[in-house]
Amino acid sequence: MLTIFLLPLLIHTAISYKILIYAPHFSRSHLIFMSTIADILAHTGHEVVKKRAGISVIRQNLSLQTIYSLEFAPNVTAPNPKEAKVITKPLSFELNFDLLGFMSRMWDERQTTVFALIKIMRLMGRFLPRLCDSVLEDTATIEQFRKEKFDLGISEHIDPCGLAYFEKINVDKYISTDSLCLNEDVTVPLGIDSNPSFVPLLYNPFSDEMSYWERVQNFMRSISSAIIRHIVVDLAFSGVFRKHLRSDFDIKEKFRKSAFAMVNSDEYLDFPRPVTHKIVYIGGIGVKKPESMNSDYQKLLDSATEGVVYVSFGSILRSEGMPTETKEAFVSFFRKFPQIKFIWKYEKNDTIGSDLNNLVKVSWAPQSGILAHQNLKAFITHGGLNSITETAHSGVPAIVIPMFADQMRNAKMVEKRGIARIIDKRNITGESLTEALEEILRNDRYNKAAKRLQQLILQKPFSATERLIKYTEHAVVFGHIDNLDLAS
């Protein structure tokens, strides 16, 4: 009888696999996503080695599945997988880029124009191809990784160098991922219909229900964004691939031969759109269980019987970088609700709002614990995909003030689901903030919609984590599955 119960465990151990995760450190949110994938796969009982750019791999009794994460990191702090060994190597070049200055300008600059798209693409075009060149010329590390004979590679689609790296080390089975929601950069190369009449582009501030003029803009930007990406990013990568691989290396064809494309989307949160079985939704894998809070936070939240509102603009966009008039707008807003306790993630110890008894300014907060507390009434956020997903999992209404990139689209997602109000960052006033919160507090439909969305996500037949594990194991066995490829 004991043998019957132990047999599945013995079989699982016997067929454990060795996986390489290629995770260049493009931004904190991208690294969190890839690190979470590594942790989930490791948590099934496998040992993880996370390799940060090029020091020789040290093998230490790797008896089960091994996941190597190859990570090339500029000077931006970000978490590593908690269950992975980390081996690092610094960049071979310096990147002259003022990240905090770039982010502080987001409070003022308009980010939904073609010019804003060019800025984002230029940043990628400056950094990622140079990074790829540094990776592919490290022949010593490439030879070491080639000898490891990995069963599978996992790489994020935003940086095509991962697929080129797999080619160099003879890994012919691989999965592509995207830490953003399902978007045209993934679907178009796979031949999946992305009809601009109802599928909003990644960087557009539209929902799937667009006016005639919005559909025209969406269509025109679908063309302009493809041209800009080709000129600014793709051509730079082509030169790197010709230098280190071969002249006819086709990165788009390489991407099409991915076993699956795993995206950071949740089908109940994102806009409905055409997909194929090659697309695997794993949105929510990074949502943490509510953190245990220290006694000060617990007392603060428990005592706020009239409600709590949490204000945070993420790990990179800093509240201290707001223009003075924006800070004053928030203080005026806080003053209108003396019965509500506001927790504001604010990174500087200054006198802004110091006269308010209902305001607590903190440089860091246990976000998952706060979002899960029964006294929380609303979350004011910038609309980063991780924060939006965590909001949906927590069943909390939101006020979204999107700043740049995909955040406008993310805001439209939660607005469509009936759980959020959107404020244009160019219209942050005490009045606009007050009106939005009063609407959420007065109208119970926001809270009901948030709770319904939470339960849809939590009670889905197969969780994002289960999908990640099962499809990864399936890809190791079968590799590229042409049964799933469209003829187009």
UniProtKB/TrEMBL annotation:
GO terms for cellular component: membrane. Keywords: Glycosyltransferase, Signal, Transferase. It is an enzyme of class 2 (transferase). It is a single-pass membrane protein. PROSITE patterns: UDPGT (PS00375). One of its GO terms (molecular function) is glucuronosyltransferase activity. It is found in: Membrane. It catalyses: glucuronate acceptor + UDP-alpha-D-glucuronate = acceptor beta-D-glucuronoside + UDP + H(+). Its EC number is 2.4.1.17. Residues 1-16 form the signal peptide. InterPro entries: UDP-glycosyltransferase, UDP_glucos_trans, UDP_glycos_trans_CS. Belongs to the UDP-glycosyltransferase family. This is UDP-glucuronosyltransferase. It comes from Enterobius vermicularis.
